[in-house]
Amino acid sequence: MGSNYYLAPIDHRARSTLEYYLPPPVLSHSDGMFLTLTYAASLDSRIAVGHGMKTHLSGPETKSMTHYLRSRHDAILVGANTIIADDPGLNCRYPVSDHSNMAEVSPRPIIIDPHLRTNIGPDSRLFKNYRSGHGKAPWILISGSKVPHGDEKIMNFMAAGGVVVILPELDSGYPLESWSAIFNILKTRGIRSIMIEGGAYVINSLLDVQAAAKRSSLPDDKQHIQINSFILTIAPVYLGIKGVEVSPRDAMDHLEHIEWFQLGRDSVVAARFFSG
User: Fold this and answer.
1) Quick check: 49 pLDDT over 90?
2) Would you state the pLDDT for residue 224?
């Protein structure tokens, strides 16, 4: 493993600022799931120039920050569109003190793909990282309703080391119920903190249910939607009206303890979601 594999560390002031917005080092089973919503966007709130088009927004400093955030979470969650567009590695390349086991400090990749639109085989970056010891094996969450028994994509995924989790609630038609089921099943499997990185459908859906959970009639044990922290990288570019937009359906004013700081050419805003 060459030294150029690792990203440059972010400065001490940025790490100190971020600390308040990150999960504590130890979360017990009785604690709620710690959810961090983080992504990079343009000045016009776009995350890509078009659907299915890989777009680099973060500068080297905020890219390193993203990998630092990954080192502080148990899992990293993305949707099917991100996998299809980017073939991401979803591991950690931040230079932690012990470089000997990067898989250990990398988050568990979690893919939300109810109807199995992805085809994550052994040649994907996810499994290349896993085989080389640079990342953990991915888990994929599917509804099962439209995936035939013995599906070749599932068999290949499992043969490469991946874990398939069948979650019928993904087809419930109620996003709040779907997200509650996702976080509940992941908690039972030992996940205590999740970094939610994209794409637009995942981010927008989660922002919508964050607001909807406050006015839902679901039983209390179904309402486990509380985004704890929000960390946004803003790149000094416009992607235009055809870009993929991130925005909830309704107005939201749920942020508090807001901090802004500069990393390279990018601006970063960190905040807590109001829980009261």
Assistant:
1) yes
2) 55
